Known about the structure:
The structure holds two protein chains of two kinds. Chain A is an alpha/beta fold. In chain A, β10 (207-211), α9 and β11 form a beta-alpha-beta unit. Helices cover 38% and strands 18% of the residues of chain A. Chain B has helices spanning 7-30, 53-59, 75-80, 85-92, 126-140, 158-169, 217-232, 264-272, 275-286, 291-314, and strands at 67-70, 116-119, 146-151, 174-180, 183-184, 187-188, 209-213, 238-243. Chain B has one domain (2-182, 198-322): Rossmann fold. In chain B, the strands form two sheets. In chain B, strands 2-1-3-4-8-7 form a six-stranded parallel beta sheet, with helices on both faces. Chains A and B meet through α3 and α12 of A and loops of B. The complex binds thiamine diphosphate (TPP). Thiamine diphosphate sits between chains B (72-73, 121-123, 150-154, 181, 183-185, 250) and A (32, 61, 63, 89, 92).
Amino acid sequence: MPDKRIMNVAEAIREATDTCMERDDRVFLMGEGVADPAAIFGTTRGLADKYGANRVIEMPVAENGFTGVAIGAAMMGRRPIIIHQRVDFSLLSLEQLFDNAAKTCYVTRGQHTVPLVVRMIIGRGWGQGPAHSQSLESIFAHVPGLKVVMPSSPRLSKGMMIAAIEDPNPVLMLEHRWVHYVEGDTPEGYYTVPLEGTTKVRDGGHVTIVANSYMRYEASEAAAALAEVGVEVDIHDLTVLRPLNVDAIVESVSKTGHLLVVDSGWMQHGIGSEVITRVVEQNLTALKAAPRRLGLSDHPTPSSRELAKDYYPRAFDIADSVADMLDLPDDKRDQVTTMINKARGSLPADIPNPAFRGPF
Amino acid sequence: MHATFPASELKAMFQSMLRIRLIEEAIADKYPADKPENQKMRCPVHLSIGQEAVPVGICEELRNDDQIGLTHRCHAPYLAKGGDLRAMIAEMYGKETGCCGGRGGSMHLYDDAAGVLTSLPIVGSVIPIAVGAALAMQQVGSDAVSVSFFGDAASEEGVFHESMNFAALKKLPTIFAIENNHYSVYTSLSDRQPDRPLEKMAEAYGMPAFHGDGNDVAGVRIAAREAIERARTGGGPTLMVFDTYRWREHCGPNYDNHIGYRSEGEFQHWKEKCPVETMRRLLKQEHGFGDDDEAVMVTVINSEIEDAFVYAENSPLPDAETAGDLVYA
Ligand SMILES: Cc1ncc(C[n+]2csc(CCOP(=O)(O)OP(=O)(O)O)c2C)c(N)n1
C-alpha cells in the first residue's frame, strides 16, 4: 500500500489550482487577497510567487466589475478563477453572473462559452453575523446556465476543482469555511471528479439522509450514534447542486422508504424542497413516512452565540428527526444523544466540532 | 490654523480622541482569544486606533439630527457622534443590552438617539444608504445633513460612483468622507488604484472636493465645517479625502507589521503622526494643559470604560427563543 497523502481541503484546493496552472497557461486567478499573506485561507499559498502577478491578480474591491472582466476574458478563451472570501461579497456580482455568465452560451447557440470558475466561501461562527455567513447556494442553483458544486472532502475538492477549471461552462464552487479543515487522503497529481451526481458516504438500509457540504459531517456524527441503537443510515452527499442528478437518492429511498434532507442554507425554496420533490415525482410509493427537511432557522444569522445556538442544524437535530421518522423509543433516543455528546465534548456551538481547528 | 479654536474646544477634541483610543485599547486588551478568560467578545473587531482624528473632527461639527453611515470600522465614528458606549460593548459581548440586542456584533452598530443611522460590513454598502438619508432630509425640508464614512477601498466599488453621481445631480446634503488608511486588508492602495489623487474623482461629478491630513483633527474639523455648511444651505455634496493609517491588523487586536505586507518603518512614520499625541503636545506646550489635567481626564474615561465592560459582563444574553422575532415589521 502506498502511503496515504493526508491533507486538508484548503490544501487540496491549492494543489488543484497549482496543477491546472502548471498544465494550462490560460488559467489565472483573480480576487481580493489572492496574493496577500493570508492567501485566501491558504488556498492560494505560494501561487503568486510561482506564477507571478499576471496570473495571480490582486483585484481592486470591485466585485461586479471584476466578474464582468473575468467573463469577458473567458469569452476570449482564457480560464479565469475568481475567489470571494465570503459568498456575501459575490452578491455585488450577481448581474454579471446571472445575465452574462449563465446566458452567453445559450444566446449564441454555443458559439461563445464562459469557462469561468467562481470560488465562494461560506462563513460560520465567531459571531460574524448577518452579512458574513450566508449560505446562498440555492439562489445560484436556481439559474440555468450555471453549474454549482459544494465539495466536502479533500479528494472531492481537488478533483472537482480541476474538473471545474476544465469545464467549458461557468462553475460556482461554494466552500464551507469549516470544511477547509477537513483532512483526508488525496490522490497525487492530475485527476478529475465529474461535476454531476451525488457521493455516497455511508451505507445503511433504514433511512436516507441527503446532506451537503459541512452538513455531511453533522449527518455522519448523527449516523454513527444512530448505528449504536441499530439504525443504519444511507448518507448521500449532494456535491453537485446543478446539474442535479438524484438517481442514487431515488434508488436509496426505494430501499429505505425514509428521506431526510439537511440543507446548509435556509429551507424555504431550498435544496431540500427540490430533492424531495424529485423523489416524490419519481417514486412516491417508496416513501413510508412523510419526508423531512432540516436547515437554518428562518431568519438572518444573529451574531450573539446565544441567539445562534439553535440556528444551525446539528447532529442532535438530525438524529431527532430520524428518531421521529422511525418512531424510536425514548431510551434509544437518550442513548443516541449521549453518544453524540460524548463524541463532541463540551465545545461551544459557535466553533467547529473537535475534528476541526481554528482560526475562523 | 489652530488659532481658530479656543483651548476649550481643543481640549474637547483631545478628550474625544483619547476616549476612543482608550476604549479601543481596552477592547484590544480584553479581546484576544488565546486567553480563555476572554473569549467573551465573540465577533470580528476592526479597530480605528491611529485613525481617531477624522471621525472626531467631522462629528464635532455635526448636530444630533445629522446622520452618519458607517462601515465595518465603525467604533470610532459611532463614539465620536455620541453613540452609547455601554450599548456598543454589550453588542460586542452578544448581550441583550447591545445596540442590536446581540444580533449584529461589532460591525452593525447604530444609535438612533445619537444620529448613527447604521453600520454595514459589506464594502461600499453604506454609501448609498447615507445618500438616501440625505434625500429624505431634502424631501422633508430639513437642514440636517448625512455623512458616509468609508475606507479608500470602498471608492473602488461601483456603488460609490453611482452614489456620487446621484448626490451631485440632486444636490443632496451629504458628505462622502474617505478615511484613506492606504490599505484594504493587506493590499496597498497603489496595488488597487492608479496613481492619482482620490479627491480628483469628485471632479468627474462636478462636486467640490477636499484633501487633507487625516491625523490633524483641527484641520479635519475646519474642512468639515465648510462642507457641512455647504450641504446645509443647499450647496450639495462634497467628497472629503483624509490620509491616515491603521496601526493594528485589519481585523483583530494585534499588530501585524511582521507578516510582510507593510514595513515597520512605514508604521513608525505614521505613529510619529499620532493624532492623539499631536494634540496632547499642542495642549501642553501652548495651552497650559498639565499632566495632572490629563490624569483627571483619563480617570474619568477609564471609569466610564470600566462601567461599560461591567455592564456588558453583567447583562443577560438574549433569549434564544427570540432569535426569530422581527424578521418583519
Ligand atoms: C463587497 C465586499 N468585498 C470584500 C469585503 C471584505 N473586506 C472587508 S473590509 C475590506 C477592506 C476594506 O478596505 P477599506 O474600504 O479601505 O476600509 P478599511 O478596512 O481600510 O477601513 C475588505 C476587502 C467586504 N466586506 N465586502
